[in-house]
């Protein structure tokens, strides 16, 4: 299918005591295997769990065996043990794979995981579960001593109820967060069947809890400190995670294995979920704070009512990912397993997170950016657009595609479709990107086309010749020979407009559709359009006397006679004294004069004058100027008057805008533009 | 002159917090916001003009530690002037801490055997007051035993009191070249001024560099206490857009003058003779400035 094959997906994070580590991987053993991993995690971990500066950026690591692409994210929040959670969902490919199509997928997954974490602590719960499963419970809390709530007496920490460090309360937390103190002493861990099998599955000996309590002097002081909102308890920062120690519950009837740690079940439901199925497994104890119980002083106590943790509060619909993660922590594992399967098999996937949210991913091939689209270009479709469009397409696109017929320019399409031209252009760019259309120029009989080197291809490619004949012939008419067509193509040359060319070659006799004839050549690349660029040559004076520089003083010095300068100088005053001096009229004359750097050599050099010879009697020149100005005064900024070039047009007369563009922009025909530009003899034309 | 200082210790033991307080003008409360150090954070601290402390704050997570002793061993442990190892007094897993500590010592022994080693028993504020001495002494004994044949200099520290300044002053003191010369000049200065005591501080960190005592005050902790107090005051001043310049404290028993001495140092002069006018002392200080500037320049010329 053209997309690279995913070799592995793994999720790694920064563990507060162990450092960067891989928590989930699929397929199993691809990263964590001791003997033959795809890639050695330790050697690349500094780019997967990097310094903060590399976070929130796409980072690709090439190793001798494979390519790993990830988007590390650093979520800062004081609820985390080290004030931030850093994670990276990395995708592994073969070292030579072309992975540009996966880049948006990697970014999106990172965004999704970040959002999941913010909304419902998806990641931190998974992390906790994964880490306990790995037997890393002890190291989870570097200050694990604080797990004993101050309300508990050390006596409660007996081996038989080794879970004395539970923080399950049977009462609702008080608002000011002094939750822990409401925990009745000796409340053991909760279990459905009443059996207290709550020792942490990592095999920590019950005695470990006594170590906990032996340190209680310091604990209680720190706890006291942390509970008292007034203190600045340094313990507060280490609160998170801590209270989870030793917590466990046995099966809750939703598929838990007995004795497995299910932190999620004990910790309250994700607080921000509003009664959606995410909360369905757990009850939703009223909890105002967004974070579950392992928080610091400020009223976070979202401790669930023990007995109801186990029973479901709502009837459950089909278990979604969130449900799964709540109960047995396999959410992330399932997620990445499904990801790799679907992306490799179908190049797209849809993973429901809960009844409201789904992860939608699709691989799109990446192509180079399309060339910019201009209003004056004409799109021709190369695929059957009508067949492809359906009601799900973007509305603007649907409207626009109807008018793509190889004749309408982009601007015209926008007009017909009644969409804004910018949007029409964007639609074209999209279609161009996917190769649905190609752009040609506006077909007019005044166009000039010329032949390119690629013409030679035609002589060799028989299939192309056949295609040409078929395309070019008028329907239901006798086709001319290819040789004739070829010779006609070759007769197109610089300087000959189509109109004339048709006459010269008696095209009418050959049953050829001229438009298709031309467009075939342009599309196939052996004809090109010769554009006409008008350029206003400021160095070409109307008369030598008119070549006077902007400053009146220098004008005086250059002018052969003082009189012209004075008249010119007075011209602005004439203009300004006009009854209705529009800004256009006022500026145009000064424009003329200010932009006329006169040198005698220039005078000599540019002798294509409207008014004849080099030297013009002074008398004539001021007249001429006055005449122009009078015109200007009479019909200010009226481009159709033919007597004056509007400034908007004038500024485009720099040899960079061709006729097609100008006509499209100003909405006039070629003939009108010709007429208008003819009014100023300084305007030259460049054909290229 | 560059001196490499390694700051190592278990994850979460307080290395970055200490560094931030001493060198980055954090107050103790601000350190709560700090994140974990990923791998090694390098910082260059300019000290006394020409001395640059090249501080290597090494993240203490297991994955990183393993790395330091394995693939990065030479890179980390060569050319070290000072190793500061931080122990969290509350740590549960003392054996593991010791294991890493000893690996560090081994690496130092092979790569920088002349390095000075400071062991900071940190977070002492979390220990009950009446237990502190006992616990500290136990730890020190253990450390010194385990560190043989290397000699280590232990300190007990906490970011919440002046003990932090004491430890770091000593560390920095050990790095300053020719500090004895400085002290002899201070002695001279003290004699001329008839001061009870003269203390020299580094300007940015307010760590004590040197002192000259003619009349002992009796409180052995006075230096770090003053460092702490003045540093906090300096920070408070800067918070209100002011910048601390100098201070004079007068009391029936003494007069204390704190003012800048050179571009990099501050001096505190304690006078207990009430007949000596402030102006005289201040004038002495201003005259001494040039002398000490020259001295400072010469100190680092080698």
From TrEMBL, chain A:
InterPro entries recorded: NPR2-like
Protein name: Nitrogen permease regulator 2
Biased composition, class Polar residues, residue ranges: 189-207
Species annotation: Linnemannia gamsii
Region (Disordered): 146-175, 189-220, 275-312
Family recorded in the similarity comment: Belongs to the NPR2 family.
UniProt superkingdom: Eukaryota
Skewed-composition ranges (Low complexity): 153-175, 208-220, 290-307
From TrEMBL, chain B:
Domain of life: Eukaryota
UniProt subcellular location: Cytoplasm; Endomembrane system; Lysosome
GO cellular component: cytoplasm; endomembrane system; Gtr1-Gtr2 GTPase complex; nucleus
GO terms assigned for molecular function: GTP binding; GTPase activity
GO BP term (any one): positive regulation of TORC1 signaling
Similarity comment: Belongs to the GTR/RAG GTP-binding protein family.
Its job: GTPase involved in activation of the TORC1 signaling pathway, which promotes growth and represses autophagy in nutrient-rich conditions.
Stated name of the protein: GTP-binding protein
Source organism of the structure: Linnemannia schmuckeri
